Amino acid sequence: MPAAQPLYRIEGLTKTYGEGDTAVQALRGVELDIPQSAMVVLLGPSGSGKSTFLNIVGGLDQATSGHVHFEDVELTGLTDHGLTEYRRHHVGFVFQFYNLVASLTARENVALITEIADEPMEPAEALALVGLEARIDHFPTQLSGGEQQRVAIARAIAKRPKVLLCDEPTGALDSQTGVRVLEALDAVNRELGTTTLLITHNAVIAEMADHVLRFADGQLASSSPNPKRRHPGDMTW
Amino acid sequence: MVIDLSPLDRKVLRDLWRMRSQAFAIALVIAAGVGMVVMSVGMMRSLDATREAYYDRYRFADIFAPAKRAPKNVLDEIKNLPGVGPVEGRITAGATLDIAGIAEPITTRIHSIPMAREPRLNALVLRSGRWPDPARPDEVLASEKFAEAARIGPGDGVDALLYGKRQHLRVVGTVLSPEYIYAIGPGQIFPDNRRFGVLWMGEEHLAASLDLTDSFNEALVRIDRSADATDVIRRLDSLLARYGGAGAYRRSEQISDRYVTNELAELQTMTRILPPIFLGVAAFLINMVLSRLIDAEHEVIGLLMAFGYRGNAIMLHYAKIAVALSVPGLGLGILLGSLLGRGIASIYQEFFVFPFLTYRAGLDAYALACTVTLVVVLLGVFQSVRRVRRMTPVEAMRPPLPPDYAGGVARLIGKMRILDEPTRIILRGILRRPFRSGLGALGVAAALGLYITSAGSRDNVAKLIEILFDQSNRADVMVTFAEPRDQRALFELQRAPGVWRVEPIRTIGAKLTGNRRSKSEGLTTASAGSDLNRVVDIDGAIIDPPARGVLVSEGLSNELGVTRGDTIEVQVTEGNRARFSLLVADTIESAVGSPAYVDDAMIAAQLHQVPLLSGAYLGVDVARVDELCRYLKAVPIVAGVSLRAASRNGIEATIGETLGIVTLFNTGFSALIVFGVIYNNARISLAERSRDLASLRVLGYRRSEVSYILLGELAIISIIGLPVGVVLGYFISHYISSVLGGDLFTVPFGLTQATVAQAVLMVLLAAAITALFVRRRLDRLDLVAVLKSWD
């Protein structure tokens, strides 16, 4: 990956869960740079460490050793408070199971983020970006899975984050709905230039990436550029 | 108007709406805790204030100074004593009344009232009829309670036996007096309004009947605020000594005031101990409920953390939910507490017959109750949110880790072939979180303990009555004499119709001096062969009087500062005024009063004469009681007759009513808490388990099988709580009975199995009702939702 002006610089990153005999090494020394505005897809089997990697990069979890630099800041040196501020200002999350707050409408779920952001979009604008302007006042239970995931994407991008982290965003969706969700992510990446890291089990999705990272056994097995980035609408699985 | 709420505030509102039925249960528990405090404080303050105002407005005397006969000009000398304010001289006499419809003669006290003016002290409240006409010597006023109990009213005539002369009197009005909030006749230990009457008669007419013209036999004295009552009493005693002064005493020794004080003190004890326990239990339960609610929200908290919400903002969010959950309970508690406090105070007003009620609520009590509740609630929020915040957002958002079932007990459960899978789920669920399960059981235990304590105060009263009437005083009829009589009176009574046994009542008026101080307290005689009246201690054990020395009640021994082996100086204040010392042979915890018992034969030897009788206990053929009463009506020496059965009813009504009202409401509040606790336990378990349970339904479990898992856990936790609650209730009950009671009564501990059983049934009932509610919720589990999200 190009070394010039990376958004993230990751050095010797390890993560161990538990202690002694029961210790599980989730990451074993990952070295990596991630450029600005890239669409990065992370592939790998369950337990390969990609979710752990994403969580640490997203400031949701602490590394056991190694360094993660975000621009000029070393995330691995931040306190809980520092990580909170980092997430608050720079990171958007999209989860496999949407994690919408059930008692809030689509608009309100997005507003949950715009409330605490510096220069957010209007919730309606964010929802329009994912094609949900018509479902704005619906509660999560009134939305389909794909719609819920798009609300989650709108919620993630509404604060104009520098980076968008998506853990299996289409994992719970059928392919047609999945494509619509990926289209939304693609549009955000292209139009807003938001660096996007996307975890998936589905190798086809790697075709929409600028870079593809393959994880295996807690290590980065390969990092390859994708010269022919495809539009999600052209992909099928 | 559109209110622009932030999304988190909307979440607050919608969460509250979602939790509304649970919020209702929480509100009930808080309302019970706060309501108890507000009710009790309001009631107590109102009663105290009312009594004070009553005494003040109707100029209740500070000191009472009885004498045999003193000329009226002595009143001027009394007035000139330092520290003395208004003084009133009056005549007080004993009489018996013969009223149609009442078999036994009625012991009556008659006081004189000035005809030309208002009494300076101990003024009367006219309740019906009119004041007596100064020109009509036969017109009298009757105390209202007596008039009601004896069914007489203005216009009715009564026959009185006054100073050996029969007189026909006409009641023209009924009155209340601060002196007779409780009217207790000679020889009685409880008020019995049907058998003890109080009349007020024009001064000149009463004086003429008693041959006391221009004299008085009782001085009422009011003293200045700064005056030293002891000094005034000493001067009064020396001033009245030559007029047959029987010893002045202060208001606090006046029998009615003592009873009222004692009653109020008992209420005060009940209201000082129980409400804080209630509030404490309520706060503890709310704290527990909120902690579990917040724990259940850990994913949302994790999410908010992931979004970069700061700790304070998250804390504030849950604090808002907690406060919003508390406010209805606080409001309801204050409303209910104020209404009930006022209501109960007015019930007591009627019971004591105060002419008015001065209601005092007390903002400070409200504020204190609310503050305590809110602090405990917010503390719960703070602890819980902090616990979640200590996790990383990833940990917080993750569904709870599959519990570690590697432990020995869990393995043991696995090996028990007899258990089916759902039962294993229940048992492991409880064992996985022993602390939480323990708290749940403790909640049930605390609620049960409160219920037992509240309902158990009735048992203590029943035990007291049993000791008094089944163990101690077993005479069918007790006769009091107008004046002390010698042994011959016993033989006369022996011949009365229906009498099969007679035992003497002898009380020797004396002043006892111990190591610490002196007290006027009669020596009560007893003999080992007594059957009708026995010396019985608080546990109901029969104790023979000592052959030598004196058996001293613990109350008296504390006052005098003596213990077993010490000596007491006795100054007899009647007859030959002998002076001697007695060894304290033993002490006894006595249910009523603070008596000192001496052996009949021993004291006769000590006094060199057989002491006179103040009355007699009679064993009577039950069928001939009425005949005996008619006979006694014609015996001039008999000043009063009291029937055991009637006294017993009277006491049951008296103590039963005062404590009964408070007990009723305490029991009601504890029932609320019992229900609130169990319902909340169930609802939280449901919330925590709904995902698992829905998954089981997806896998093909039937509704009843799923219900079994949840309700089984609930049942086990409740059942664990039961024995703990019984023990808790036993100890709180025991404690309360040990601090209840003043110098008049000691309350025994009488908690019965029936009460405990009733309390346990109450818990089981609450659990059953809760199970019905929860079962309905289980039937509506959302099965699709569980498929849509994690695991």
What does this structure look like?
The complex is a heterodimer of chains A (237) and B (791). Chain A is α/β, with parallel strands linked by helices and 237 residues long. Chain A has a single domain, classed as Rossmann fold. In chain A, 28% of the residues lie in helices and 27% in strands. Chain A contains six helices and ten strands, in the order βββαββαβαααβαβββ. In chain A, a hairpin with a 2-residue loop joins strand 4 (65-70) and strand 5. The radius of gyration of chain A is 17 Å and the shape is globular. Among the domains of chain B are: 62-256, no CATH class; 472-649, no CATH class. Chain B has 22 helices and 23 strands. Chain B has an eight-stranded mixed β-sheet with strand order 14-17-21-18-20-19-15-16. In chain B, strands 3-4-9-6-8-7 form a six-stranded mixed β-barrel. The two termini of chain B are 44 Å apart. Residues 787-791 of chain B have low confidence and may be disordered. Chains A and B meet through helix 2 and helix 3 of A and helix 1, helix 8 and helix 11 of B.
Relevant terms:
heterodimer; A: 237 residues; alpha/beta; Rossmann fold; six-stranded mixed sheet; four-stranded antiparallel sheet; 6 helices; 10 strands; globular; B: 791 residues; alpha+beta; eight-stranded mixed sheet; six-stranded mixed barrel
